[in-house]
UniProtKB/TrEMBL annotation:
The keyword Transport applies. GO terms for biological process: amino acid transport. Gene3D superfamilies: 3.40.50.2300. Residues 25-371 form the Leucine-binding protein domain. It comes from the Bacteria. Keywords: Amino-acid transport, Signal, Transport. This is ABC transporter substrate-binding protein. Belongs to the leucine-binding protein family. The keyword Signal applies. Residues 1-20 form the signal peptide.
Length: 379
C-alpha cells in the first residue's frame, strides 16, 4: 500500500497542538495538492489560507478565529476518505470545504453525511448534489451544465456531430455520462468515445482514430489535471482540423501554460472570474471578482484561476452561513447554507434551497475561447 502523504496547516496557530481552544472554529479540508491534480489543488489551498487569515485579522467569525486543518490526498480518492474520517473522528471539525476532484468528493460524502458535518465540495460532478444530500453543497458549475453550454455553442455553429476523448477519473466519466444523456436535447450526435489513463503522456493514437471518423465536426475533451493540455498539444501535432472543446475543468492558468500555442482557438465553458476585467461595470460580480484577483495576485504573485475561486466561494459560503446562524454548530450552519440567497460569488450569484444545493444555473457560465494565449469571451 503506497504511503499516504499529508499536509496539515494550522492557520494562526502553533503547529502540533492536539486540541483547539474553545474560541476557535475548526474547518477541515482535503485537497489534491500533490499528484496529477496538484495544479488545481494548490491554488485551492493558497486561497483557503489567504482568506482564513484575512477573516481572522478582521476579527474572525462571531468573535471566534478560524483554524484550518488541511490534508493532501495526493490526488487519490481512497486517501480522501481516510482523511475525511480523520477530520471527523480525530480533529472534530465543525465543517469541511474541499474535494479537488469529483471522485475525491464522492469518496468523502458518506463520512460527512453519517457524521452530520456540512461539506462544501469544490468539485464539478453533478452527482455530488444530484440527488440532494442533506449535508452536501457545492459552488462549482456542474459537468451537466458544461455539456449544455458546449452543445449550445456547437448547435449555434452548425456542428452537430461530435466525438469525446476523456480521462478515466470520476469527473471525466461523469461528464461523458451527463453529455450523452442530454445530447439529443440539443440535436447533437456523439459519433465515438475514446479514453486515456491518468498517467498517459501521448493521446495521438486516440485522436487519430477520432479524426478519421466520417462526418465528424468537433471534438470534446472531458478531464481535469494535465490530460487536457496533452490532448490539446497532440491535436495540434496531428492537425486535427476541427474545433476542440475542453470542459471547465481545464479553465486554469496551468492549462494555458502547459498547452501553449496549441490552445489557440480552443473553447470551453468557464466562470466570469477568468475574464473579470472584460465585464461591464454594471455586472454585480465584477467587484467580487476583481477584489479576489487583487488579493490572490498580491499574496501569491500568480494569476487567479477557477479552482482557487471555488475555494474562495466554498470558505466564504461557510463563513456567511456561520454569521447568519450566529453559531458554528454544524446543524445550524447546514440550515443557513440551504437558505443562502443572492450570494455574489466567483461562480455566479448563488441561491440555494432544500431542493437545490448548487444554487446557480447556466447563466453563470460563459463560453470562452483562447486568443493569443489568454481567455476571451465568446458570449
Amino acid at each position: 500500500m503506497k504511503p499516504i502523504r499529508a499536509l496539515v496547516c494550522a492557520v494562526l496557530m502553533a503547529p502540533g497542538l492536539a486540541t483547539a481552544a474553545r474560541s476557535e472554529i475548526l474547518i477541515g479540508s482535503v485537497l489534491s495538492t500533490t499528484g496529477p491534480a496538484s495544479f488545481l489543488g494548490e491554488p485551492e489551498k493558497q486561497t483557503l489560507e489567504v482568506y482564513a487569515k484575512r477573516i481572522n485579522d478582521a476579527g474572525g467569525v462571531n468573535g471566534e478565529k478560524i483554524r484550518l486543518i488541511i490534508y493532501d490526498d495526493g490526488s487519490d480518492a481512497s486517501n480522501s476518505r481516510t482523511f475525511a474520517t480523520r477530520l471527523v473522528e480525530q480533529d472534530q471539525v465543525v465543517a469541511v470545504v474541499g474535494g479537488t476532484g469529483t471522485g475525491n468528493s464522492l469518496a468523502m460524502i458518506p463520512v460527512f453525511e453519517e457524521a452530520g458535518i456540512p461539506f462544501v465540495s469544490l468539485s464539478g460532478g453533478v452527482d455530488i448534489i444530484d440527488p440532494v444530500r442533506k449535508w452536501v453543497f457545492k459552488p462549482p458549475h456542474t459537468d451537466r451544465m458544461a455539456c449544455a453550454k458546449i452543445f449550445t455553442d456547437l448547435k449555434q455553429r452548425g456542428l452537430t456531430n461530435a466525438a469525446f476523448i476523456a480521462g478515466q477519473g470520476g469527473y471525466a466519466k461523469s461528464m461523458v455520462t451527463q453529455c450523452r444523456s442530454v445530447a439529443g436535447q440539443y440535436g447533437i450526435k456523439i459519433l465515438a468515445e475514446e479514453s486515456y489513463g491518468p498517467r498517459d503522456s501521448d493521446m495521438t493514437a486516440q485522436l487519430t482514430r477520432i479524426k478519421a471518423l466520417p462526418g465528424l465536426k468537433a471534438v470534446i475533451n472531458a478531464d481535469i489535471g494535465q490530460g487536457p493540455a496533452i490532448v490539446t498539444r497532440n491535436a495540434a501535432q496531428i492537425n486535427l482540423g476541427m474545433p476542440l472543446y475542453q470542459s471547465h475543468g481545464a479553465a486554469t492558468q496551468g492549462y494555458l501554460e502547459l498547452a501553449g500555442p496549441a490552445a489557440e482557438g480552443v473553447r470551453l465553458p468557464g466562470p466570469s472570474l477568468l475574464v473579470a476585467e472584460q465585464l461591464p461595470d454594471s455586472d454585480p460580480q465584477k467587484k467580487v471578482l476583481l477584489d479576489y484577483t487583487a488579493v490572490i495576485e498580491k499574496a501569491t504573485g500568480k494569476p487567479v484561476g477557477t479552482f482557487g475561486g471555488y475555494a474562495h466561494d466554498g470558505l466564504l459560503l461557510l463563513v456567511d452561513a456561520m454569521k447568519r446562524a450566529g453559531s458554528a454548530d454544524p446543524a445550524k450552519v447546514r440550515d443557513q447554507l440551504e437558505k443562502t440567497k443572492g450570494y455574489v460569488a466567483t461562480v455566479g450569484i448563488i441561491t440555494m434551497s432544500p431542493t437545490d444545493h448548487l444554487g446557480i444555473d447556466l447563466s453563470a457560465f460563459r463560453m470562452l475561447e483562447v486568443k493569443r494565449g489568454k481567455w476571451a469571451v465568446v458570449d
